[in-house]
Specification:
The protein has about 280 residues and is α/β, with parallel strands linked by helices. It has eight helices and ten strands. α3 runs parallel beside α5 and α4 packs across α5. The structure holds adenosine-5'-diphosphate and magnesium ion.
């Protein structure tokens, strides 16, 4: 597998001014590596089928520090879910390593909770029970503690009055709020989010993005968030990592401009589109 040719990437980044770009070393260990919470080093992940090996990710290097929100953006099929699933412990590296607090990730754990596009709620349990259930089973809280914690988490996502509802009685946005409350209540060391708002309409999506940012501010959560939506990547992440396809490789890392003037954010969006070959 040849290493990535970075000349085009650097041209695109050089040609757009007014955007604060940082760390464009490609596939080199990034900032904060020494005190990082999550460390991904030369990670290659492959899928095996008879007579076929798909290299989904090739030599990924990335570090995430406690309290950071890092987004990965890339087109469909570029390996975003593969990366998140490896961090979750669902997949094993073909080469390289992925470490949480210096320890290799080898299996799923309640230290790393995943929020998927599909809410994954148990249909026969109420919103409150859905949030409390994993607290009892994985965090070993007693019923009273779990219910108290679940109620607080549901209140934080604005669902206090709906805690006795079953999933089929909730809207898509409300169901996703329950799944976010469930994840936050577990107080994972890192929250892994795989396109959690992709199935929602634009207005609900915007609201949930705002709510997630508020929750992160409130809890100082560490978030690893993947999306194909460039605006969402800029809005949610402090840092935005751009992933190319076939195989998935990091082609750029940018400091998010979210909060700057709209034209600066637009420039950053255009820049990422160019990097991804969309424009
Ligand atoms: N279980 C699997 N078996 C074989 N190939 C897979 C499997 N899952 C994903 N792939 C392939 O790996 C690549 C990356 O997929 P994925 O991580 O799902 O991308 P993304 O989340 O960015 O859309 C794609 O080429 C996809 O077809
Ligand atoms: Mg995916």
């Amino acid at each position: 597998m040849p290493d990535l040719d970075t000349s085009n990437t650097n041209d695109i980044l050089d040609n757009i001014s007014g955007v604060n770009i940082k760390n464009i070393g490609i596939n080199a260990p990034k900032s904060h590596a020494e005190n990082a919470l999550l460390n991904i080093r030369d990670l290659t992940v492959q899928y095996y089928a008879p007579n076929k090996i798909t290299v989904a990710l090739y030599k990924i290097n990335l570090s995430i520090t406690q309290g950071e929100r890092v987004t990965i953006v890339g087109q469909s099929g570029c390996g975003k879910s593969t990366l998140l699933n490896t961090a979750a412990g669902f997949l094993k590296p073909a080469a390289g390593e992925i470490l949480l607090e210096g320890k290799p990730i080898t299996k799923p754990s309640s230290e790393r909770i995943v929020v998927f596009q599909e809410h994954g709620l148990l249909p026969w349990k109420t919103a409150l029970e859905n949030v409390a259930f994993p607290l009892i089973h994985a965090k070993k809280l007693n019923l009273e503690q779990a219910v108290h914690k679940a109620q607080s988490a549901l209140t934080l996502v604005g669902l206090h009055g709906l805690q006795e509802k079953f999933p089929h009685q909730l809207s898509g946005g409300q169901k996703q709020r329950v799944s976010i409350a469930r994840a936050f209540a577990m107080e994972p060391k890192i929250l892994l989010m795989d396109e959690p708002f992709s199935a929602l309409d634009q207005i609900t999506k915007n609201t949930l993005q705002d709510e997630l940012l508020e929750l992160c501010k409130h809890t100082n959560a560490t978030v690893f968030f993947i999306t194909h939506d460039i605006r969402e990547a800029i809005k949610i992440g402090n840092r935005v990592i751009v992933l190319s396809a076939n195989p998935g490789q990091i082609i750029a890392e940018l400091d998010s401009c979210y909060g700057s003037d709209a034209d600066v954010v637009e420039k950053q969006k255009n820049q990422i589109e160019q990097l991804l070959g969309i424009k």
